[in-house]
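[SOLVED] Need 3D model of a four-part complex

Original post:
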Amino acid sequence: MRRTNKDRSESMRQALIEAGRALFIEKGYADTSTPEIVNRAGVTRGALYHHFEDKKDLFRAVVEREAGEIANDIDAAAPADDGPRQAILEGTKAYFDAMARPGRTRLLLLDGPAVLGKDIMRAIDRETSEATLKHGLQALLSKSDNKDNAETLAILLSAAFDRAALAIETGAERQRYEDAIASLIDGLTD
Amino acid sequence: MRRTNKDRSESMRQALIEAGRALFIEKGYADTSTPEIVNRAGVTRGALYHHFEDKKDLFRAVVEREAGEIANDIDAAAPADDGPRQAILEGTKAYFDAMARPGRTRLLLLDGPAVLGKDIMRAIDRETSEATLKHGLQALLSKSDNKDNAETLAILLSAAFDRAALAIETGAERQRYEDAIASLIDGLTD
DNA sequence: TGTTTAACATACAGTCTGTCTGTATCTGTT
DNA sequence: AACAGATACAGACAGACTGTATGTTAAACA
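Solution:
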């Protein structure tokens, strides 16, 4: 069984990220210990601290991977060319679909901000939901006077989407939130 | 120096809450140890674990007290009778003022949700900002068809306020966010 | 092929949390 | 007022966890 070092490292990293992800989702960051993580991955703590700076660094890798997958899921939901309004609303649905995957709200909306800080989470958000929303809003408001507010509105609405995802996970009716968001969006153009 | 037990307990609780608050704000919940807390309060860990179930229970007391003070601050900002639109916008400014007090965003928006969970934080929010916002929206939308959406909109806008408070603390222009919120509010009635 | 370096495993030190036990002060009762 | 019980702490203790330091094996490279 002769493997290259690069292969070993990469598969080990992925195994640790996967094990960490499962436990962070199940028990939260604070209640997950590094012995548990490496035990689940079938290795020792030496491997963990060889590939990651500390427990927080592993968590960051988990969150970044998850954010990337969410961005992919949203992009995969083809934004049919039905105009900016429809694009935003379809994007909203795609976001809710993506955040419905178990554990994602906890990783990105609860533990993430506390463990990694608001600045790092802002940077991660910017690459995913916030950016596409900003573009959608720019297209929507292109003829209006408050075009320069697109960025600010994207940030605010992105926060609203997040809270909606949390509420939906708790059992709230998804349709209510989609309607409410639609009314907010439509209000910007009327 | 003869003191009643009730007095001792109450002053001790307040001292622990105050010491905990200072450290939770300065270093965050995870990086604050109970020895530090009791050291700052000038007592021992025995006192802490006599009055609180555990570290998390003290944190909950800190957050609840802070949320109550924020609610007071907002209520103190007299909602002059200028109609529902103005009431909501004034409430927004009062909320930003309240959240500008150092540490409040960290306590309520970053550490709170991760440590106490979204359900407990929802319950705390409901008593403070969300409730007044909901009433304002109900008044604003009383003649419109989507009156029953006031609650959902209150939740969404409350989340937007929170993110705005975080952005403002990071250095963003407060006026931009007040304007953006005003445009969202006005869009609901036009 | 020998030497350096990367990829781990294992041992260790320090700290923290929650509990348990002990002591002094207060409270209620007779 | 004195005693019994409860309350309010202080201090000691056990277990667990984090990060580091050291050791070992296998790959990389010259």
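Edit: The two ends of chain A are 66 Å apart (CA to CA).
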